[in-house]
């Protein structure tokens, strides 16, 4: 590891953002994404304070599906309103549950597990998961996701599911703040949509895009670190030994 400062001068002007993923253009990989047909809907609700444009994945995940919807906000009166549709039955939409239940403890063989409102493993997993029309993901930190959960009472009517991913998140050390299930939004979307549609190629496509996004991030970070801010613990010296000014 080199301790030398970067030789590259900072960009004179901030580059424009991609209108699709909203990342600064050097970080955008949108042109490599081909939208997939999917039986299930995907709704991603993003907390307004989720500001991680460089490493965020909600909009990139949504671009993989022709009918995916991303909304930024704190509350919506109903699932239908959030989706922008006339009707939608929340009981037929799966939401990633924020409670402490771990799939590995309940059923180590399942990548997706439906829970009852009491947080117990539901009977008839197969029938429940087959009846699902769409998937809802809350995009943000743990506390932001919890705020979304409590401000949208219709979420209580949704089918709760938890994930038992076979491998840890590809974020690795890039993101320090733990997400509720340890996965990025794009990884969670891939795992859920692939499991519910029984099409592993969906997860493969989203995971591959995520890896391209992370590789691009690491390339850009070397030349233009100002475009790739990384959250660091407060008050600790940075890698050049200086105290960080926040
Ligand atoms: Zn883009």
Automatic annotation (TrEMBL):
Protein family membership: Belongs to the TDD superfamily. DTWD2 family.
Annotated stretches, region: Disordered: 221-246
Keywords annotated in UniProt: S-adenosyl-L-methionine, Transferase, tRNA processing
Residue stretches making up the DTW domain: 14-222
Domain of life: Bacteria
Compositional bias (Basic residues): 231-246
EC number: 2.5.1.25
Protein name: tRNA-uridine aminocarboxypropyltransferase
InterPro entries per UniProt: DTW, DTWD2/TAPT
